[in-house]
Specification:
The chain has 11 helices and 9 strands. It has about 210 residues and is an alpha/beta fold. It has one domain: Alpha-Beta Barrel (TIM Barrel). The strands form 3 sheets. Strands 3-2-1-9 form a 4-stranded parallel β-sheet. A 3-stranded parallel β-sheet has the order 6-7-8, covered by helices on one side. The protein binds 3-phosphoglyceric acid.
């Protein structure tokens, strides 16, 4: 396993510090959603494999061009393969799975495993991955947990996700160890079901604004 550019999320995010996490109920939403996120200033997005049409959504959003689109909730090597075939530029998992990591390494796509403990973080570091998703960040203890976990591992970078919203964003981003913050608050399934693309644009712009020094 290597940590070169092909396995490096930071190179894909290219300075973007907010990662909208999307669960998209209908593939028809993908185009307008990509437009709304891009109009709000987002430069990346994570499409979760929690809906039957996730691959199609990923394909449409990746083709949009304005966003680096990755796949989330990737639980198996097969899903990782399908995600990359659909255009995923990175793969995120809620937990640490060696087979998913091995498949992503073989495919040359950055993979970000979820971790919730020092033991899991040590496994990720040993696998050559220094960027991990702290998940679920808020229920685990939020920023005090992040700081305590980061202290013995200065090389680790975190993408805290889970229970984070606009008011909590800036505090996470101020942490040295945080690469970017993920979350669904900018574009929820409820927003999408109601067709609230202007609200998605507004919430995205607010988050991007808070993440820009
Ligand atoms: C994820 O898959 O990353 C999370 O479900 C996002 O967490 P949130 O919905 O609490 O932001």
């Amino acid at each position: 396993m290597t940590t070169d550019a092909t396995t490096d999320l930071a190179s894909v995010l290219d300075g973007a510090r907010v990662l909208p996490v999307l669960t998209v109920p209908s593939p028809g939403s993908a185009g307008p959603l990509a437009d709304a996120l891009a109009a709000g200033g987002a430069r990346c997005a994570e499409v979760t494999f929690r809906t039957p049409d996730a691959e199609q959504v990923l394909k449409t959003m990746a083709a949009h061009g304005g966003l680096a689109v990755g796949a989330g909730t990737v639980l198996t090597p097969e899903q990782a393969e399908r995600a990359v075939a659909a255009g995923a530029r990175f793969v995120v998992s809620p937990g640490f799975d060696e087979e998913v990591i091995a498949k992503c390494s073989e495919l040359g796509v950055p993979v970000v495993p979820g971790i919730a403990s020092p033991t899991e973080l040590m496994r990720a570091l040993r696998a050559g991955l220094d960027t991990v998703k702290l998940f679920p960040a808020e229920p685990l203890g939020g920023i005090p947990m992040l700081r305590a976990l980061a202290a013995p591992f200065p090389q680790a970078r975190f993408v805290p996700t889970g229970g984070i919203d606009a008011p909590r964003l800036s505090a996470y981003l101020a942490e040295r160890a945080v690469l970017a913050v993920g979350g669904s608050w900018m574009a929820t399934p409820a927003h999408l079901q109601r067709g609230e693309y202007e609200e998605i644009r507004r919430l995205t712009a607010e988050a991007v604004d808070r993440s820009t020094p």
